Amino acid sequence: MVIEYAGTVIRAVLTDKREKYYDGKGIGCYMFRIDDFDVVDATMQGNAARFINHSCEPNCYSRVINVDGRKHIVIFALRKIYRGEELTYDYKFPIEDENSKLHCNCGTRRCRRFLN
To answer: What does the record give under GO molecular function (predicted)?
Structure first.
């Protein structure tokens, strides 16, 4: 285990509204989906996990785990991580049509060119 993705748990139906609010205020948006119903919003009350970048060849992976009936998002190491090495994981965004594609800038040999 590397770190838990911490923040405020909100209903998934509120994410678009919050994202528009943050965009209007010029605030970067950091959200991570737990399941179809809940999302962790780390934008205002998150920890350093929100700054972990995407990579198509990551050194970490994320999992939703259940602890005492509560779901938590945890980042785990895929391999030994060396001092000074950037932490990355695959965001695994849902596939979108060509007009909604988000370009990937990870620069790895196996880059898929898009996050979604």
So the answer is: DNA binding; histone H3K4 methyltransferase activity
